[in-house]
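Quick start: what a row looks like.
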Amino acid sequence: MKILFFLILLYFNNLVTFLNANQFDFKIGKDEKELIEIFETVCNKLLNNHKIEKVKNWELQNIKNNTIFVTNSKTLQDLFIKIVKRGVNTKAYRFTFNNAEGAKFFITSNSDCKVNMARIIQRNRLNQIIALLELSNDFQNIKKVELINPKVPYIYPLPLGVKVGLIDTGINYTLPEITNKISRVSPTEINGYDFVENDNLPYDIDFIGSPFFPRYHGTSVASIIIKEAPEALIVPYKFSRKNTCTFGDIIKKLRESNIRIVLLAMGSNNINDWQCFLKEAKKSHDIIFITTAGNNNLNIDNNKIYPASFDLENMIVVSSSTLFGDLAKGSNFGIESVDFLVNGEQLEVVDHRGVRSITSGSSYAAPRVAAMAARYFAKNPDSKILDFKLMLIKRAIKKSNNLVKYGWIPDPLDNYLF
């Protein structure tokens, strides 16, 4: 019966993805045709070593460090051309078109102007990115559509379990192995929030580096909790890099929802980014914050990383160890700031695509402790959060190198002392 339910869910999920993708019956319009024409004209000028002074309404503005800057003052568009070289020879070209709304079109080609990749961004009336499309090399067909806010798959009855707040880049709630382990308000509404787009669709995607090449993180982190704690239900919160005080808003929501376990597999060296977090975390005596020490090969007692370097009684800071309890290569440490070492190396995760892959680092050691917390509170619902921390301290093994405060937890999958 469970297998039949899973197959129905998988079919439904694929159907939703198919229907959503077909919302974008993309055809090259006038604007896109002009951009393609500009790409072809400019690229051929570069290929033949001709000067780029003016192409239609596009005029050369600057050439610096193998980057050409061209603008169209009439349509408020600009074009950045990055010339990728190997030695003195041109290897490739990267064309990035922007309009008044932001990034629009990205094309890469080899030195002979043969297209290798073409990506275009779709926005809504509020100028929010709603989809990233990858086009065929002749620009005529869609090869791939990545929706930024896909529909939430229907689940009934609503899943039950120990809630774990996940503050990260979001989660791919469409994946069959993920969706039935997310806390729900209703069969089609997630218990969580996206503070980037201010909606209830905290989808796993982060445009901090480039809208054409987004980053993903939250799904992989969540998959470890789900795998190691069947009792856990994820409550995903997508934080805003532009407004770091959303951390405070998230903690307020966590308190209102009586969520006691919170995972932040992230950090930065700018203490100002974390003041709102610190203010609300100090008020949240019934929440245990589990965070990563980071992966910069630093002693964070001296080189502060936040929130890990804050002195909070209701926070557990985790760094990654090898299987034998030694500090993993590149992981941060600190006898005052880092509480525990847990093996976070070569772990299997489910990534945002639903693909099983292997990854390492403190970001993947911390969710193992969050999974322990979910199992602990499932068995001991009336325990205090500091009871859990004291249990971990009893479990920890002191190592001779004294790189962390309490020691190494060698068996995070074992319920010993629960």
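That is the whole record. Confidence is low (pLDDT under 50) at residues 1-22. The first helix runs from residue 2 to 21.
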